[in-house]
Records
---
Amino acid sequence: MDAGLEGPSRMPEESSPRRTPQNVPYQDLPHLVNADGQYLFCRYWKPVGTPKALVFVSHGAGEHCGRYEDLAQMLLRLDLLVFAHDHVGHGQSEGERMMVSDFQVFVRDVLQHVDLVQKDHPRLPVFLLGHSMGGAIAILTAAERPSHFSGMVLISPLVVASPESATTFKILAAKVLNLVMPNMSLGPIDSSVISRNKTEVELYNSDPLICRAGLKVCFGIQLLNAVSRVERALPKLTVPFLLLQGSADRLCDSRGAYQLMGSARSLDKTLKIYEGAYHVLHKELPEVTDSVFQEINTWVSQRTAQAGAGSPP
Ligand code: XP7
């Protein structure tokens, strides 16, 4: 993946290789270089034989793709090739923490990675799996390439700005603030609203790759930008999707899920609401998370069945 040219003389990169924010040289890690020249940390879960399909995993704001290990392992057992990267400004990728010049950078980088992996696996169906902000990225990625993706799994995607974090007044205030103090913090995410599972909240609080600093005004603006782009993209969306949502989610309101179900043109769309569940459904109470894994497993299996083995009921 490293396209660096071998020069005849010593290149400065040799003595000072690019390093992750955690100071690990990228040459020791799977990575790609995006269109802005930023290094992104990548993960690959490859089945032994020929994969049945490809799945790109798109993580949420402040987190990183290492948190999808269990979901990736489950999909790997279905003979799918799972791949992911840490979005710019996240985890082991470059970029100022939780900053992006434009939300489209996230979408563009996903398309670059998808194109890269598809070069080695032409003709295989490609799926997207996205959570929260990563869900908004997945929706915009699918909307940019109508009929390219075979399906999309969305876990509490960002579709509408939560009424708590974005009242009309707060949105207006953010737009004004963005002009005068774009780096001001809007305050950190209250980790207790992530999940009802105390162990998962503790893991979130102690993960060194998670950025728990307050969300900056300029990043909030990009999230609002994403929300309005998603809203416009929905009526054109045709990709089959499975949508999982907690009814007590205070970070991404369940109204977003209903809006997605109502506005998307997709004929194959499924919504499952988890009564009382919080935001991170794949790291919720065991009864929720077990069901989330089962639903994803069944949904993806039915849509990656070998052609000729009979169509699903
Ligand atoms: C806004 C603003 C908006 C994990 C994630 C983290 C939740 C949400 C979190 C804030 C200000 C406009 C750990 C917060 C954006 C989406 C979590 C804030 C993912 N999952 N969120 O495992 O991605 O939204 F001005 Cl829209």
---
Amino acid sequence: MRHFLTLKDFTKEEILEIIDLAIKIKKQTKKGKLKPYLKDQTLGMIFEKSSTRTRVSFEVGIHQLGGKGLFLSANDLQLGRGEPMKDTARVISRMVDMVMIRTFSQSVLEEFAMYSRVPVISGLSDSFHPVQLMADYMTMVEYDKAENAVVAYVGDGNNMAHSWLMLASKLGFELRIATPKGYEVDAGILKEAMNFAEQSGAIITIGNDPKEAIKDANVVTTDTWVSMGQEAEKAKRLEDFKGYMVDDAMMALAQKDAIFLHCLPAYRDYEVSEAVFEAHADEVFDEAENRLHAQKGVMVWLDDHRDN
Ligand code: CP
Ligand code: NVA
């Protein structure tokens, strides 16, 4: 049985296989001919943090596949009153067919998976957001940016930056990350990515100069400067990230037909200017829609890789 907790655990071939499946599923969905791949299955969805896209896309996705989504807010579960995660895992995984969890620590996901009888999917942790990256790569394929990709990530060295590191180092494309000093990516995750990059041929550059990162890139991306759980640091962060906004002057340095991606929610005139966001809104909202299809691909793939 396989889980989907980080792209670290997947080979290049497996990632591309899920992307192909997601593209096929999107086509079937658009034609109204989606096969009920997960007929009568239940997806438990545990949320310890807020969500718009992850919640709606997983709930609608499992419904479209013939199953049912069960929204479980951690506050309303006994989990919120101190029931251990490993007990929660042993109970819920006897009742549902698959589980998605959005939580703080990656170790919580790992613990849940260790005790789970069914596949577990990360819906974001403080370290990674792997389902988002499946949607992002799917969007790059659709916009013809996946071949010879040069991706510039400008902003916080957070879960999104870490996920881009994993995707690029597994698939073997060029990724340049520019963060302010003091907001660099995690050194351990970078080291793992560099090891994968040695095998895949990915070119990974880490620095503090957004202009250098964006120059001639064909994909420019960023994320909020204040992630969920960092609200207390907001004032300091907004100050420290000055100069890192993706605006018209920055985008002008990228390839002429470069696309802009953002996992959303986007904070206008902080990490991205209103003008850049609106000029690239088609790309960003195609990316958001692709969460729905990419995750159907992930769920169907995991269902196909059960032990029995
Ligand atoms: N991009 C993303 O995961 O959005 P939500 O926080 O709304 O789920
Ligand atoms: N880095 C952001 C991503 C939100 C989808 C956060 O963790 O809040």
---
Amino acid sequence: MEKKKVIFDCDIGCDDAVALAALLMSDNVDVIAVTTVFGNRPVDNTTDNALRLLSFMYRDIPVYRGCNTPMVRTLTRGRDLNTRMERIRMVIDGKEITIHEATLPLPESTRREEDRHACSYLIETLMNSEEKLDVCATGPLTNIAMALRLEPRIAEKIGTLYIMGGGLYIGNRTPVAEANFYDDPEAAEIVLTSGIEIVLAPIEGCHSGATYSQQDIDEIDSVGTPLAHFLAEELRNFIKRCQILFAPDENSCCIYDYAAVIPLIAPDAVRDIRREICRVDFYGGMADGQLVVDRRGFDSDHSSVQIIYELDSEKVHENLLSMLKRNR
Ligand code: RIB
Ligand code: CA
């Protein structure tokens, strides 16, 4: 089967790193570029992390730096004041602890990012491509939304857009909003209503298939390669940071962004996926950034968004392990 050409848009952090490694190991996918965006960390860090991981995996794939601020949300003063925010940063004895580290513990890359902005790259590449290209977006959707605003016709040039974002019944950054959508709600609304064919992995769909215990992580490590050990250590340290920041008894973690690329690299691991009408609240109140799914039943067949409700955990875990073993 011919490999699908994919652009990976991310805010590398720990779970984005697993998703990128999985895409690079997959037989189904040819990652043609990585675009970076703010989110887990400022875009300086997410760009540097993308370069570090690509060099660590000996891949000479171009990286394009993207947006470092949301489209408009920071223009509204006090927009963050009225929510019960998840604590994603603390300073303990003068040391900053954040849920995602600024720099992946990998050697600095000798490469630099390309000169073009990620949005320019997305528009020029999609508009000049003879075939539709797939895109995976695992951070705030700012780059995709800005590119759509500049050149709406890219919507017809994207085959499928795979997104990690939103929560069906729960949030993480706030009681109702997931981090990627919360960081740029307007971008999420623009993208989800753009008409692009979207496969969306919300918090619950990710939890169903990509939750990893310490034992699961040890199994990854047992593959014995430098990549397997790096990923395992990343996940162990992610759990440790979660224990410090908000859940002392936490002993597992969800690899959200890896779950989001599963429909592309291991579609047989998708158990329950439904086409539904999706919107995103961007009015700055308690529900700011919330994914709103209209389940009243009418019009859902006209939606361009498919939501992953459940993944097959065994197949998801097996997929990563078998790829790591194949890439020994
Ligand atoms: O809510 C989880 C999402 O927010 C993931 O993409 C994670 O990397 C963070 O960006
Ligand atoms: Ca991410």
